[in-house]
Design goal:
The complex is a heterodimer of chains A (265) and B (308).
Chain A (H helix, E strand, L loop, with lengths): L1 E14 L2 E7 L12 E5 L10 E4 L2 E3 L4 E7 L3 H7 L6 E8 L13 E7 L4 H12 L3 E8 L8 H5 L3 E6 L6 E2 L19 E5 L2 H13 L3 E5 L15 E3 L10 E3 L6 E3 L6
Parallel strand pairs in A: 8-9, 8-12, 9-10, 10-11, 12-13
Antiparallel strand pairs in A: 1-2, 1-7, 2-6, 3-4, 3-7, 5-6, 13-16, 14-15
Chain B lengths: L1 H5 L3 E3 L2 E3 L3 E3 L22 E6 L12 E4 L2 E4 L8 H12 L7 E5 L4 H11 L5 E7 L10 H4 L2 H14 L4 E4 L7 H10 L4 E4 L3 E3 L2 E2 L4 E2 L6 E4 L4 H12 L6 E4 L5 H10 L3 E4 L2 H4 L3 H16 L14
Parallel strand pairs in B: 3-16, 4-7, 7-8, 8-9, 9-10, 10-15, 15-16
Antiparallel strand pairs in B: 1-2, 5-6, 6-14, 11-14, 12-13
Helix pairs in contact in B: 3-5, 5-6, 7-8, 8-10
The chains are: A alpha/beta (265), B alpha/beta (308).
C-alpha cells in the first residue's frame, strides 16, 4: 500500500453511467490480489474532498496497467468519468484484503456472482482462478439491458449467465434465480462461491449457502473516510465475536472481502 | 538536525515538541495504520482515538457523508476500551521513543472520565490528556459536558485532581459563547485548550429523503470549518493565559501559520490525513521552508500575531 501518481491511458463509457478507465504507473505492479481496491483523488482541490474507493477490474503487470470500471453516480465519480488520456491521477493502493485464491485446486468449480458495479472485480478474480485450472461460471445481474457490461470479456474465462430485473437481457429476475440445478449450479455442483454486489444480494447468498456449509466469500461496500483502517467509518459487526477479540471488522482494511459467516450484514 | 528543527520546536504546557504538528484525535486511530506510510517519530506529537472505560461499538453505518470542502462524521466514539488501550495500544506506541502521546479521554459520567484519566496517566509515554467534552455524536457524555461552563469546569477540576500529566480541554464550537467556557475551564485548572471540535451538521439523501448519516447528524470537519476555528481561537486566545492546540481544516503549512497568528501554540491535523496519508510529514517539511522564507526564527513568535 502506498500513494502515487498514475497516468490515464484510456477512458470510455461502456454502458449506462458505466466507465472503463485505464491507467499506468509504478504502483500498479503491486496490485496482485483480486478483490482489492484503490482510493482515488477525484479532481484537484477540496471539492470533492475525500478519495473514492474503486475496485480493481484487471491488472497487466508487464505494462503496469490497471483497468477500473466504475459507475458515475455522485460528484466524485462524475469528476473521475471526465478523466482524459495523459492526465495524472493520485491513487492510494492497493488497499484491503481481496478474494482468497491460493487454496483453489485444478478442476474445482467456482461460481462468481456479481450485481451491477459489483461485477468488475470478478474479472481479475476469474483470470486468476483460470490460471490455477479452476472452472469458472459467472452469474451477473443488472437492472436493465442498457446497464449490462463486461459479458464478452468474462465469456473468455468461463460460462456467463446474464440476469436483468426487467428481462430486457438474459434471464428475467435475480441472480439467485439462476443458481439452479437446471443450470448446473445447485450447491452440490460447485466448490466455492465468490460474490460482489448490492447488500440484499450478498445477504441472500450468505444466508442460503452458509446454512448449507458451502464455502463462499462476499465483498462489501460502504462509505469510507480514510480507506486504510484509521477512521472507523466503514465498520460492520462480526457474526460471532470471540472472547477478547474485536466485535467489529473494518471493511476497508479487514475486508472488503469476508468469508460466509464472518460478518453480520 | 537540531538547527533544522529549532525553528519548529514548541513547548506547550511543559510538553517539548520538535515541531507543532500532531494528528488530531479520531482521525489517526492509535497510529498503526499511518505507521505503514512513515516513521511516526517525524510528528511533534500524536493525539490518539478517544478512550472510554468500556469498549464502544459506535454508531450504525453510514457514518460519513461528504460536503463541499468538508465531511460529516458520526463514528460515535468507537474504541477498544481503557484496558485494551493500556495493554495493547499505548505499549505499541512506545517504540516511537520521541513521540509525546496525547490521549483523548471520553465518558458518559464524571466517574467514567475520572477512571480513564487516572489509569491513563500510569502509561509511561502519555504526555497529556485531552478531555473530550465536545463530541457531538454520542447521546450521553461528550458535548453535554461541554456546553455548560459550570459543568465543564467541574469536570476539569475532577480530572485535574487525578491527572499527573497536563490536561487539555477540547472545546466545542457548538455553543453561543466559547470564551465563557474557555475561561471557566481555565479557572478550573486546565493546562491548555484544544479547539475546535467538529460543527454539528446534516445532509439529506434526495432519493430516500432521509439523512445520509444513520445517526441523522454528524460533526462537520475539513477546510470548510477553518474560518470558524480561526475566529474562535482568535477570540479565546486573547482571553486566556493557557496555550491552545488549534485544529479545524488544516491541510498546509500556510494553514498552520494562520492558526498560530490567530493564537494557537501547536496544531492538530484531522480530515486531511484521509485525503493524503502523508499530509503531516509534508506540512512539517513545508513549514520549515516557509518559516525560513518569512525570516521567522521560531514558530512560537507567530502565536497571536493577528491579535488586536
Amino acid at each position: 500500500m502506498d500513494k502515487g501518481l498514475v497516468k490515464v491511458i484510456a477512458n470510455e463509457q461502456i454502458a449506462e453511467r458505466i466507465y472503463r478507465l485505464q491507467v499506468q504507473g509504478e504502483l500498479v505492479g503491486r496490485m496482485t490480489r483480486p478483490g482489492q481496491f484503490v482510493h482515488i483523488k477525484c479532481g484537484t482541490g477540496i471539492d470533492p474532498l475525500l478519495r473514492r474507493p474503486i475496485s480493481i477490474c484487471d491488472v497487466d503487470a508487464d505494462q503496469q496497467a490497471l483497468t477500473m470500471i466504475f459507475r458515475a453516480d455522485g460528484h466524485g465519480t462524475r469528476v473521475l468519468s471526465e478523466s482524459v488520456p495523459g492526465q495524472s491521477l493520485d491513487i492510494l493502493g492497493p488497499l484491503g484484503e481481496g478474494f482468497p485464491v491460493e487454496m483453489r485446486k485444478e478442476g474445482e468449480h467456482a461460481v462468481l456472482v456479481g450485481g451491477g458495479i459489483g461485477v468488475p472485480p470478478l474479472y481479475y478474480l476469474g483470470k486468476q482462478l483460470r490460471a490455477r485450472g479452476v472452472n469458472v461460471t459467472f452469474v451477473i445481474g443488472f437492472g436493465t439491458a442498457s446497464q449490462v457490461f463486461l459479458t464478452e470479456e468474462l465469456a473468455e474465462l468461463g460460462t456467463v449467465h446474464v440476469v436483468t430485473m426487467d428481462g430486457s437481457a438474459g434471464t428475467k429476475g435475480l441472480v439467485t434465480d439462476v443458481l439452479t440445478e437446471a443450470n448446473g449450479l445447485a450447491p452440490a455442483d460447485w466448490d466455492v462461491l465468490y460474490s460482489c454486489g448490492p447488500l440484499p444480494m450478498l445477504r441472500a447468498l450468505q444466508d442460503t449457502y452458509q446454512a448449507l456449509n458451502k464455502e463462499g466469500y462476499i465483498s462489501l461496500e460502504e462509505r469510507m473516510g480514510c480507506g486504510v483502517g484509521a477512521c472507523l467509518a466503514c465498520v460492520c459487526s462480526v457474526q460471532e465475536p470471540q472472547e477478547g477479540k474485536k466485535k467489529y471488522k473494518k471493511i476497508c482494511s479487514d475486508g472488503p472481502v469476508f468469508a460466509f459467516g464472518e460478518v453480520r450484514i | 538536525m537540531a538547527t533544522v528543527n529549532n525553528r519548529l520546536a514548541v513547548n506547550i504546557a511543559g510538553i517539548e515538541m520538535k515541531n507543532p504538528i500532531m494528528p488530531a484525535s479520531g482521525c489517526f486511530g492509535f497510529g498503526r495504520e499511518y505507521a505503514q506510510f512513515y516513521d511516526l517519530n517525524k510528528l511533534g506529537a500524536i493525539a490518539v482515538k478517544a478512550t472510554t472505560v468500556e469498549e464502544r461499538e459506535g454508531n450504525p453505518t453510514p457514518r460519513v457523508a461528504e460536503t463541499p470542502g468538508g465531511m460529516l462524521n458520526a463514528i460515535g466514539l468507537q474504541n477498544p476500551g481503557l484496558a485494551d488501550v493500556m495493554d495493547y495500544e499505548l505499549p505499541w506506541l512506545q517504540q516511537f521513543g520521541d513521540l509525546p502521546v496525547v490521549v483523548n479521554v471520553a465518558g458518559t459520567t464524571t466517574d467514567d472520565y475520572v477512571q480513564v484519566a487516572e489509569r491513563i496517566c500510569e502509561a509511561p509515554n502519555v504526555a497529556a490528556i485531552e478531555l473530550n467534552i465536545s463530541c457531538p455524536n454520542v447521546k450521553c457524555g461528550g458535548i453535554t459536558f461541554g456546553t455548560d461552563p459550570v459543568i465543564a469546569a467541574q469536570l476539569t477540576e475532577e480530572i485535574k485532581k487525578v491527572s499527573s500529566v497536563p490536561v487539555f480541554v477540547k472545546l466545542s464550537p457548538n455553543v453561543t459563547d466559547v470564551v465563557t467556557i474557555a475561561k471557566a475551564v481555565e479557572a478550573a485548572g486546565a493546562d491548555g485548550l484544544s479547539m475546535i471540535n467538529t460543527l454539528l451538521g446534516m445532509r439529506i439523501d434526495l432519493k430516500t429523503r432521509r439523512p445520509i448519516i444513520a445517526n441523522r447528524t454528524g460533526g462537520l470537519s475539513g477546510p470548510a470549518i477553518k474560518p470558524v476555528a480561526i475566529r474562535m481561537i482568535h477570540d479565546v486566545s486573547q482571553q486566556v493565559n493557557i496555550p491552545i492546540i488549534g485544529m479545524g481544516g488544516i491541510q498546509s503549512a500556510d494553514d498552520v501559520i494562520e492558526f498560530f497568528m490567530a493564537g494557537a501554540s501547536a496544531v492538530a491535523v484531522g480530515t486531511a490525513n484521509f485525503v493524503d496519508p502523508y499530509v503531516c510529514p509534508t506540512i512539517i517539511d513545508e513549514l520549515e521552508v516557509k518559516l525560513e522564507a518569512y525570516g521567522v526564527q521560531s514558530i512560537s513568535e507567530l502565536t497571536g500575531a493577528a491579535w488586536k
